[in-house]
Amino acid sequence: MFDYIIVGGGSAGCVLAARLTEDPQVNVALLEAGPPDSSVLIHCPAGLALLAQTGQANWKFDTVAQSGLNGRSGYQPRGKVLGGSSSVNAMIYVRGHRQDYDQWAAEGNPGWSFDDVLPYFKRAEHNERGADAFHGVAGPLNVMDLRSPNRFGPVFVTAATQAGFPLNPDFNGPEQEGVGMYQVTHKNGERFSAAKAYLAPNRDRANLHVFTNSQATRILMEHKRAVGVEFQQGGQLKQLRATREVLLCAGALQSPQLLMLSGIGPHAHLLEQGIATQHDLPGVGQNLHDHPDVVLVVDAPHLKDLFGLSLSGMVRAIQGIFEWRRHRTGMLTTNFAEAGGFIKSSPDQPLADLQLHFVIGKLVNHGRTTTFGHGYSCHICLLRPRSRGSVRLVSKDPLAAPLIDPNFLGDRDDLDRLIRGFSLTRNILSQPALAGLGGRELPNSASAVTPDQIEAFIRDHCDTIYHPVGSCRMGHGPLDVVDSQLRVHGLQGLRVVDASIMPSVVAGNTNAPVIMIAEKAADMIKAAQKDAARA
């Protein structure tokens, strides 16, 4: 018997496990479907490339066919390991724009404005640059500048300034717009996931119980109250009971899936799947959305300092392995997407609506396709998509993957802004700092010149940049799932704490915001328990 059961050992789950067990009288169980985060490919930052190739620690989901992508199915990688996606992502530390959170609050979610959430960002953070009005230095999550940056990241930044974009040394400071180098969640030359930051230092707490290789299959309900979790471990079906709350941290794709498997969701859909409705909640699985992204790739075989598969590249990689093992420095400390920025697709945009990630290698098919030679790439990511999709069940089998439909490019405005962003990015890559290096854009995009041709290229190549959110939306409307305290509407003892609660996706990478959400939720949960004790 536990006070709290946390479903999902990803970024949010690790934060909650650490914060709730600060009270030695509170017993917490953390369930993670994947294994411990023991692979060296997780801890070595550049291991990200091999993780993508092998599919380790990854659910490897696919979307349903996307009409906006000419009927293609998109790829949806999600972390399946302690630390969740923070153990397999590109480690970029970005919070989003102030207005993102102010809009959440304006939509009827008190306590979620930027001024409200900034203290939680700062509480989570230890920024090696030091403390200021926007950054903390006493938190568990280490944030730093790259230890051994590749020389081509600053070259991209120079090219972007030559194209007229302002330099920005801190995307999480007073202004987001501009170009620069990203800060990363690293420490001493290693990935610093949420598991490393929050879970590893506290594993010896007697009141923290971590269950790995344990996939939740159902939330146990009694009279509209969550009382436990059913899960599979080692081929056996088991149960744990919670006296206070079940905290669902399975992410934007699997939190709604588990709710529906438990009979919590749209009645008609549950009926179709042969699942008895415990609680009719139409918004479960609705409002799914994600950042659509397209990549421009440049071939530069003579630039051997870039990552690539070649004889010289292999020699450098072997040297890099020895340097990383001995000193935790060198080329293997890269996160690949070292530089980038936030730009406007047109001057009339009130805020930057595009994010760029400059990659020091040729990135094709999420890195899953082996690409020989050297070169560089630039992601063009749409920050505020209007398209909305859904998560649904394919069956009542809890081990079956969900039906994921982000409805990419379902709204024409999304496509128009990506077309403009494509041209702006090509202009950056054509500036003297980069063009003078002699690289050539790959033929499949180089042939896209007119708007119609660019549209065709985008429809053929656009996909996720790994930021699904919104499928258990926070709010008080008919399709909202949780309130501003993250409690599931109409039920007791059940909260959702992950990216699925975002009313709208933040303008940037989502890992830091999820950690913030969990930090804030931990305070809400502790306050609720104090109120209950006084009652």
Structure characterization notes:
- The chain is α+β, with helices and mostly antiparallel strands and 535 residues long.
- The protein has a domain at 147-181 and 292-382 and 409-461: Cholesterol Oxidase, domain 2, CATH 3.30.410.40.
- It contains 15 helices and 27 strands.
- Strands 7, 18, 19, 20, 21, 22, 25 and 26 form an eight-stranded antiparallel sheet that branches. Strands 1, 2, 11, 12, 13, 14 and 27 form a seven-stranded mixed sheet that branches.
- Strand 1, helix 1 (11-20) and strand 2 (28-31) form a beta-alpha-beta unit.
- The longest helix is centred in the C-terminal third of the chain and has 24 residues, at 511-534.
- The radius of gyration is 22 Å and the shape is globular.
- The mean pLDDT is 97.
Topology, element by element:
Blueprint: E1 2-7, H1 11-20, E2 28-31, H2 40-43, H3 48-54, E3 61-66, E4 72-76, H4 98-106, H5 114-124, E5 125-127, E6 141-145, H6 152-162, E7 178-181, E8 183-184, E9 186-187, E10 190-191, H7 194-199, E11 208-211, E12 214-222, E13 225-233, E14 236-248, H8 251-261, E15 264-265, H9 267-272, E16 279-280, E17 286-288, E18 292-299, E19 308-309, H10 311-327, E20 337-343, E21 354-359, E22 373-382, E23 389-392, E24 403-405, H11 412-429, H12 432-435, E25 440-441, H13 443-446, H14 451-461, E26 463-464, E27 494-496, H15 511-534
Parallel strand pairs: 1-2, 1-14, 2-11, 5-6, 14-27, 15-16
Antiparallel strand pairs: 3-4, 6-8, 7-20, 9-10, 12-13, 13-14, 17-23, 18-22, 18-25, 18-26, 19-22, 20-21, 21-22, 23-24
Helix pairs in contact: 1-15, 5-15, 11-14
